[in-house]
Design a protein that fits this description.
mainly alpha, 0% strand
Length: 233
C-alpha cells in the first residue's frame, strides 16, 4: 500500500510551525505493514505467524498513520495528509476484516446452510468463496483511490511515483487472486504469490523513502536522492 513525499527537491524544508515532518512517521508504518503482509502472502510466514501481524496493522499501520495524517493536515501538507489518513483507515479496515468481518461471513454461511442438508465441507467452500469475492470487491474501491493518488504523485518525485505504481500493481494482482478464487474458496495461487512479491518490493521502496526523508533532513543535504519531477515555483 504507498509512501509519498512532498519534499521533491531534496532535504525537507523547515516548517514555520512546530509540527514535525509527519510523512516519515506514518510512511514507516505503511512500509512495515507492506513488508509483513507481503511475507505472509508469499507464504514466508505460516498462518499462526501471519495472525501476529494484525497487531502491527492496527497500531502501526492504522493508528499511527492516521494520527500522522492529521498532523500533516494541520501543517498544510494536503497530499501527504490525504495519503496517510486514507491508508491509515485502510489498515484499520484490513484488521477489522480479518478479525471480525471474514469470520462473520463464514459463520453466517455455515448457519444459513445448517438446515439444508449441505455438508460442512460444501458450506466451508461456499464461505471461503464468499469471503474471497468480498475481498476482491473491497479492493476494487481501493484501486480507484490509489489511481487518484498515483496521478497526483506525478508532482512529487520519481521514487514516490514508483511506490504508487507498485501499489496499483499489487492491488490488481490481489483482485485477480480473490475474484478468480476457485469454487472451494482458494484464491488464484499464482496471482496471490505475485502480489506478495510485488508488495515486498513496494515495502523496500517505501522504506527507502523513509530513509531518504529522515537522512536528508538530519544531514541537511540530499544524501539519498528522490529524483524530483516538479520544482516549486
Amino acid at each position: 500500500m504507498t509512501v509519498t513525499s512532498l519534499s521533491a527537491t531534496g532535504p525537507a524544508p523547515a516548517h514555520d510551525s512546530r509540527i514535525g515532518h509527519s510523512l516519515v512517521v506514518g510512511a514507516a508504518g505503511f512500509a512495515w505493514c507492506s513488508l509483513a503482509l507481503g511475507l505472509a502472502t508469499t507464504g514466508a510466514i505460516n498462518t499462526a505467524g501471519s495472525s501476529m501481524i494484525l497487531s502491527g496493522t492496527f497500531f502501526y499501520g492504522g493508528l499511527v498513520q492516521l494520527v500522522s495524517g492529521f498532523f500533516a493536515l494541520a501543517s498544510g501538507a494536503t497530499f501527504v495528509a490525504a495519503f496517510l489518513t486514507a491508508y491509515g483507515a485502510f489498515w484499520l479496515g484490513y484488521t477489522a476484516i480479518q478479525v471480525y468481518v471474514a469470520p462473520h461471513i463464514v459463520a453466517s454461511v455455515m448457519a444459513s446452510g445448517a438446515g439444508t442438508g449441505a455438508s460442512a465441507q460444501a458450506l466451508g467452500a461456499q464461505a471461503g468463496h464468499d469471503v474471497a469475492q468480498a475481498l476482491g470487491m473491497f479492493l476494487i474501491a481501493w484501486l480507484v483511490v490509489t489511481v487518484i493518488f498515483t496521478v497526483a504523485s506525478l508532482g512529487t518525485n520519481a521514487v514516490t511515483v514508483l511506490a504508487f505504481v507498485l501499489l496499483d500493481v499489487t492491488i490488481v494482482l490481489l483482485m485477480t487472486a480473490y475474484l478468480g478464487a476457485s469454487n472451494a474458496g482458494a484464491p488464484n495461487n499464482g496471482a496471490l504469490h505475485a502480489a506478495g512479491w510485488t508488495e515486498i518490493i513496494l515495502a523496500a521502496v517505501a522504506f527507502y523513502i523513509v530513509l531518504a526523508e529522515l537522512a536528508n533532513e538530519t544531514l541537511r543535504r540530499a544524501v539519498f536522492p528522490l529524483f524530483p519531477l516538479a520544482r516549486a515555483a
